[in-house]
Stage V sporulation protein AD (Jutongia huaianensis), 357 residues
Amino acid sequence: MAKKEIGKQSVEFDCPPLIVGAASVVGEKEEQGPYGEYFDHVIRDPMAGQDTWEEAEERFQQMAAEMAIEKCGLEKKDIRYVVAGDLLGQLIASSFGLMNLDIPIFGVYGACSTMGESLAIGSMLVDGGFADRVVALTSSHFASAEKQFRFPLGYGNQRPKAATWTVTGSGAVVLSSQFDTKKKLEGKTNVQKIVQVRGVTTGKIVDYGVKDSMNMGACMAPAAADVIAANLEDFQRKPEDYDQIITGDLGQVGRQILLDILEAKGYDIASRYMDCGIEIYRGDQNVQSGGSGCGCSAVMLTGYILQKLQKQEWKRVLFVPTGALLSPVSFNEGKSVPGIAHGVILESAEERSEKKS
């Protein structure tokens, strides 16, 4: 078997796993942003008909997973593993939300980088021959995140300029082996334009000593810069080898820090860089520095980025979800907020023919 390790911290897949299904479920504020038309389903009730914010987030995850599986013509019994996580303590949105799927599950935590982590692990499972089909997903909810990490909504605190707004949403993808896709999915009308996961660069925990939990961009930007530079070095590429380099939720503050760090390393990515947190909301939506949360990069991936790749408007993208590794305990004990980011290389692949009548 060919060695898959590339450079110091990357993996290149021999037979790249295919993303054959994807779904995004968002809240009303996300629908009102500039990408509202790209999302699959909008839940306008922030409680999603449930009794608590946490149960609402569970519902978002369940819907995203079920929709992604249904969209590629599969059933729950066809999925070997789920790889999922969220921001809540002990991953309760994933564990309670996905319990009824009755699918073996790996619970993962990478803070807001969790979509990158779940995509990476799911892809390794598929490429390694351990599973033919894997669902990777994550979620976040503004109210459940505020309740756990910051202030109760009724407190009505003012938000500083560097703060970000946690996205209410969930994104899910179905990963399939190329062999399985040819064998089982060929000819289905809803599996026509495929995106493949070409490789992964696993990030390191990077800590610049920032202790401001209201400035997540400054906490995460060094980790994002580290993993982007590692990806370019490991794969011997230049920034222009990617149509877009896309971070998860650095926001306006983190964006400039990222660009400055990479420029100091000799990389200028400004002409092909976008941040999901900056993009997902309009400037007049009172979100300060931008959007954040696990759901931010997840719904932008499943709602917008994959469509650009499917239409072959982009051929190759470096998707870099970003996370801040804090908890209420660590913050209250005066710890700094380390950052983490994971890079996933997404490429447009050949189209599949439509089902003949």
The longest strand covers residues 18-27. The domain at 198-351 is CATH 3.40.47.40 (Peroxisomal Thiolase; Chain A, domain 1).
